[in-house]
Amino acid sequence: MPISLGELATQFGCELIGDPDVVIDDVASLRNAGPDSLTFLSSSSFRGRLNSTRAAAVIVRQEDAEYARTAVLIHDDPYACYARIAAVVHPPPVYESGIHSSAVVAATATISDSAHIAPNAVIGDRSSIGDNSYVGPGCVVGTDCTVGDDCRLIANVTLVKKVTLGVRAIVHPGAVIGADGFGNARTDEGWVKIPQLGGVQIGDDVEIGANTTIDCGALGDTVLEDGVRLDNLVMIAHNVRIGAHTAMVAMVAIGGSTIIGKRCLFAGMAGTVGHITICDDAVINGQGMVTKDITEPGAYASSFPSVKAREWNRMVARVRRLDSLARRVKELENRSK
Amino acid sequence: MPISLGELATQFGCELIGDPDVVIDDVASLRNAGPDSLTFLSSSSFRGRLNSTRAAAVIVRQEDAEYARTAVLIHDDPYACYARIAAVVHPPPVYESGIHSSAVVAATATISDSAHIAPNAVIGDRSSIGDNSYVGPGCVVGTDCTVGDDCRLIANVTLVKKVTLGVRAIVHPGAVIGADGFGNARTDEGWVKIPQLGGVQIGDDVEIGANTTIDCGALGDTVLEDGVRLDNLVMIAHNVRIGAHTAMVAMVAIGGSTIIGKRCLFAGMAGTVGHITICDDAVINGQGMVTKDITEPGAYASSFPSVKAREWNRMVARVRRLDSLARRVKELENRSK
Amino acid sequence: MPISLGELATQFGCELIGDPDVVIDDVASLRNAGPDSLTFLSSSSFRGRLNSTRAAAVIVRQEDAEYARTAVLIHDDPYACYARIAAVVHPPPVYESGIHSSAVVAATATISDSAHIAPNAVIGDRSSIGDNSYVGPGCVVGTDCTVGDDCRLIANVTLVKKVTLGVRAIVHPGAVIGADGFGNARTDEGWVKIPQLGGVQIGDDVEIGANTTIDCGALGDTVLEDGVRLDNLVMIAHNVRIGAHTAMVAMVAIGGSTIIGKRCLFAGMAGTVGHITICDDAVINGQGMVTKDITEPGAYASSFPSVKAREWNRMVARVRRLDSLARRVKELENRSK
User: Fold this and answer.
1) Within a domain: residue B280?
2) How confident is the model at residue C1 (pLDDT cuts 50, 70, 90)?
């Protein structure tokens, strides 16, 4: 959608240095921006690129404005400002309301008149779809689910049962919400399945990545508070609670009944055991494995960075001989007494 | 389903202390149970909670019975007993038999009269669906597959080809069984795909988690024996064999042709290389990486628990200087001779 | 498909020792091959098995030929030769061209007359499907996607938007290509979503595993060059570029904007952070975590192999006390000066 720099300045609270009537209709990186594009400078360390960009205008911090040769929109947080403008310039697709003839909707389901139910979607008993929400092709919304207003289930998403999504949720393809948690009692005759009777409660403004799985509670619900962001292939076990605005990068796995605070950040491939509590504002580094409560904000880690395999193998051998090394040091200490 | 304590005692072999005519119609945790609920005490260490529960009755071990203020059902294994009773109180949904008009069933497929084929499911050539089995919405059963009796494919499950499921299998959404294994021969012109010609043989009473993948054999079959439990996002490569009653928690990956014994337990994010053998009753701790045969039962591990990142980084630096430390100790030893 | 040894020798450039009129109609392992089967000897170390195989013929290297008691096809690379022959003996299924009546194809989509669109597949606006390509049951091809000739999307695959597949792509069930990358700007009010505006460009002869996810670019495209092989449950973040013939085993995760060279090999559960560059011919061992640029070919690692948990726990404790050990060695050195 084309929009003038003047209008952007007004709408997003920026100071504009440049011609307010210039119109942009795309966003791009500093390097690839063309003369109809808006771009942004996220860090002063890339100031040098301001010289060569062909963009119509750049969103910058006050202190970087003087280095630009183009029009500038001045904002305290250029990246967030860019994100908001990009969503205006390239709005998500709008779908006509209605239920496609190939979709199958249970008689007891409630679909808002303004919702769009795409081809081959299936909506089960007692479920409801809110205003302006989009249930994409191949999605299955099971029984007793509530999808709030302005949600987007992109395609082939499965909500199994008793799943509640707040407003403005985005659920990417292949995500499975509300499947049975992994509950089994060991007996001499093998495992006995623990019925998984709860649901999943998801707050507002949550985004859930492709092929991510969020299990229903065993008793009670699994809970994601407002603003949570999960990347692809994340696993949230039964009865986990995730605090508002916590984000998890790809392939994070959270064990059952673990409670996670607000604004935490889990880097890729990190994990936790079950039944622990993690405070607000904890950061778990990539591939980190949390095995007990975290009570202080800050960064936590347990993964080695890779090195040449030959060097690594020598290190592994050294670590395996640490007992022996420690014993030898002890002996030297005894001798030197 | 409401049921009396007397009936439960008879049906599940418990001693009842309390009024046999009291009826429960829900199960719950000790903390959340209401006056119509049954709950259970899994461990004597939570005895204190028996004081405050509002449950109608609690399943307890003999030695905990005297601490209860409610009716009690006495059983040697309260958790397993609870699991079995919960399945009676909250039975899985029952579906009318029949094939939904939107499902597409190949002419050469065989569907039991008592099976339920849900909306938009697809059943391919020469596949069969057993008595009372449920093929949920969006499921694709490919060619030459056999789904036994009393199975439940919840939704959006894919069986690709030559997959056999025993009786009472539960397959959660997004699981993919029988896709091609990762077989490639390296040549100067790039990879040459090795045709994946086998199938997948799955025993009775197996449960497979959401978005888990089990590849077909390259030649011969991938095999899961009776009672195996796989959590979500687990990966079983081609020609793996998993022994009866082995359980794998989320994000476990098993390399091709690896043979795993009975009653093993893989905690979350554990993995194995291919072409190894693991004996019965091995336990692999979370994020553990098995690189060679395991011949003795017991627990195995290779993952560090996370600590503050600053502390961790210092440890990593120390480990990297282990060679130097070992050399210095050697030198001290030489000097002190 | 039955084929004579003589024809195989001609077609695949092998020297045949044996009767050219013998016909085989199956492939199998040395151990399981029957009298109508062809098999292969991949490594001279298994020469002993040549004695007992019941196969009609074995593909061998020149130097192993004399040990065989059966007919032999001599080839420099028996495994690759086997792969090519197996694909002839057991060709992938052929589907009649046409669009199944339950599939939903947008009016603006273009489907080749020779393509097969299976039951309950959905093809969106402005997308095209090439000659002889197969879009399996439950697949969703979104908007502005291009599927080249001779591609196979097996079942329940999702291409979201702006995805281009070259010729001969194989995409296994549950794979999601072109979903939004994980882009979020942190603000005091929570995360602001960065619109993900790019697409995914995939070259020729690429194979993508079950439940693997490849995100679209934020700005610009995510790129997989020709001949790339991804196993199941792999995660490729936005704006990654993967060089030709690079292969990644299950549960590998690549962070955003990372550039990977040609012919690299990532073993299972390996990962990289974002925004790094990895040169051609790098090998990342299982569970290795790459945190910075790799500029030299060769093997890299950072994962410990599992040992008995008791032993491991002692090692972890030793590593945690390395600071103290190093201090004690320092003290000994000072004393011994």
Assistant:
1) yes
2) confident
Scan residues 93-112 of A and list those with Cβ closer than 8 Å to C: 93, 100, 102
Q: Is C315 on the interface with B (CB under 8 A)?
A: no
- Please identify every residue of B annotated as catalytic: 238
User: Residues 186-225, chain C: which have Cβ within 8 Å of B?
Assistant: 205, 207, 209-211
Catalytic residue numbers of C, as ranges: 238
User: Which positions of A are catalytic?
Assistant: 238
pLDDT at B15: 96
Question: For chain A, what is the mean pLDDT?
Answer: 96
Model-level pTM greater than 0.90? yes
By CA distance, what is C172's nearest residue in B?
B179
Do residues A68 and A145 share a domain? no
Sheet holding A122-123, edge to edge: A104-105, A122-123, A140-143, A158-161, A176-179, A213-215, A235-236, A253-254, A271-272, A289-290
Question: How many Å apart are CA C81 and CA B206, to the nearest integer?
Answer: 38
Q: What is the pLDDT of residues A232-276, one digit of tens each?
A: 999 999 999 999 999 999 999 999 999 999 999 999 999 999 999
Which residue out of A150, A211, A229, A266 would a mutagenesis test of the C interface target, given it has the greatest number of C Cβ atoms within 10 Å? A211
The nearest CA of chain A is from the CA of B274 a distance in Å of 19
Which residues of chain A are within 8 Å of residue B336 when distances are taken between CB atoms?
332, 335-336
Same domain, C245 and C135: yes
One-letter amino acid at A220 equals G
**Percentage above 70 pLDDT, chain C:** 100
| B288 vs A: CB within 8 A | no
Determine contact: A319 vs chain C, CB below 8 A: yes
Whether C64 and C164 map to the same domain: the answer is no
Domain count, chain A: 3
Q: Are residues B165 and B282 in the same domain?
A: yes
Q: Do residue B80 and residue B28 come from a single domain?
A: yes
> Which chain A residues are within 8 Å of B87, Cβ to Cβ?
193, 195
Residue C337 has pLDDT above 80, yes or no: no
CA A9/CA A28 separation, integer angstroms: 18
Q: What is the pLDDT of residues A173-218, one digit of tens each?
A: 999 999 999 999 999 999 999 999 999 999 999 999 999 999 999 9
Counted across chains A and C, CB pairs separated by less than 8 A come out at 223
Chains contacting chain C through 3 or more C-beta pairs under 8 A: A, B
A265 interface with B at CB cutoff 8 Å: no
* Residue given tokens 């001290």 in the structure block: B332
Residue B93: its pLDDT value, please? 87
Query: What band does C336 get if pLDDT is binned at 50, 70 and 90?
Result: confident
Contact with chain C for residue A136, Cβ under 8 A? yes
**A 116-135 residues with CB < 8 A to C:** 118-120
The domain in which residue A37 lies consists of: 3-89
CB contact under 8 A, A319 and B316: no
Chain C contact probe: residue of B105, B157, B187, B269 with most C CBs at under 10 A: B187
> Do residues C104 and C43 both lie within one domain?
no
Residues C175 and C273 both lie in one domain: yes
Q: Flag whether residue C232 sits within 8 Å of chain A, measured between CB atoms.
A: no
Domain end marker among A38, A68, A89 = A89
Strand partners, A23: A4
Q: Which long-range contacts (CB under 8 A, 24 or more apart) does B76-82 make?
A: B77/A185, B77/A187, B78/B40, B78/B41, B78/B42, B79/A185, B79/A194, B79/B40, B79/B42, B80/A185, B80/A186, B80/A187, B80/A192, B81/B12, B81/B14, B81/B40, B82/A185, B82/A194, B82/B27, B82/B38, B82/B39, B82/B40, B82/B42
Q: Is it the case that residue B285 has pLDDT exceeding 90? A: yes
For every residue of C41-58, DSSP letters joined together read: ---GGGGGGGGT---SEE
Q: Which residue has the tokens 């697409």?
A: C199
